[in-house]
Specification:
The protein is an alpha+beta fold. The chain has a domain of 76 residues. The protein has four helices and five strands; from the N terminus they run αααβββββα. Strands 1-2-3-4-5 form a five-stranded antiparallel beta sheet, with helices on one face.
């Protein structure tokens, strides 16, 4: 006992001094640590698994969203392509409709023009039929007038001119010949006669059984010059005969013959002109 009457306390030993107590406490601490570690590890694994699951789900959602977005874009592109194709078809159809409308209007105008031309042709055909009925007697009168004209005219190229009139009469009697051709030939004959009045002409003839050169000055006068150049004369339309001219006119008639043959330049001819009732 202590001097103060208390029992002496047992000395407290350290872990090294009490191995059994140390082992028990260490074991309990180990268990607590293990439990905490296990709990913490389990929690960490669960959290990790949950995080992985969340991440996986997020990735899947993202992938699904991307796939849906691509599918939507593809549908949009397809719809856009279809829309563009339909628009192009619409524009092409509209342009074609405009062209057809313009072509239809043009056809209507052409049809109206053709109708007007048809009516005009019908009127012309009617007039032509009436003209053809009137043409035959007109041509006959023209040929008769030409025949009389040649007979009453000065006696130049008589054979040629009479043969032309006879050919016209034969043409008129041919039913197979076209009326337009008949009209053309008659007009040509009158044009040839008209040309005689605007030109000089020369031919060989015979006057009082003598060979002569005949000079025609339009239709104003008709002269002759003998082959030997010694005698000359002028046609007298009133008496229907030749009138002898003085020999001094022979040189002028000779010049006129050369001019008619185009071997001399045109010049002034000094020749007498017979007037009805007067001499040279």
């Amino acid at each position: 006992m202590e001097p103060d009457g208390r029992r002496p306390r047992r000395p407290v030993h350290s872990n090294e001094e009490n191995p059994a107590l140390y082992s028990t406490r260490s074991f309990h601490a180990y268990l607590r640590t293990l439990v905490v570690a296990i709990a913490f590890g389990g929690f960490s694994a669960l959290a990790q698994a949950q995080a992985q699951a969340t991440a996986s789900k997020a990735i899947d959602d993202t992938l699904n969203a991307n796939r849906a977005s691509r599918a939507s874009q593809q549908r949009i592109d397809q719809i856009d392509s279809q829309t563009r194709a339909l628009l192009e078809k619409y524009l092409a159809a509209t342009w074609q409709a405009q062209q057809l409308t313009a072509y239809s209007q043009q056809l209507e105008e052409q049809t109206a023009s053709l109708d007007a031309q048809h009516l005009g042709l019908q009127r012309q055909i009617g007039e032509l039929e009436r003209t053809e009925r009137e043409l035959a007697p007109l041509l006959s009168r023209m040929i008769q007038g030409l025949d009389k004209f040649v007979a009453l005219d000065m006696p130049f190229l008589l054979v040629e001119r009479r043969e032309r009139v006879q050919a016209l009469k034969k043409l008129m009697a041919d039913p197979a010949e076209d009326r337009a051709e008949k009209f053309k030939k008659v007009l040509e004959a009158w044009q040839i006669e008209a040309e005689y009045g605007r030109s000089l002409g020369v031919e060989n003839g015979e006057v009082e059984r003598r060979k002569v050169h005949v000079l025609r000055v339009g239709r104003a006068a008709l002269y002759y010059l003998s082959i030997d150049g010694k005698s000359c004369g002028v046609w007298n339309a009133k008496s229907k005969s030749w009138t002898v001219l003085p020999a001094r006119y022979a040189s002028q008639i000779r010049l006129g013959l050369r001019m008619a043959r185009e071997t001399a330049a045109p010049d002034l001819l000094r020749l007498p002109m017979l007037v009805s009732g007067a001499g040279p």
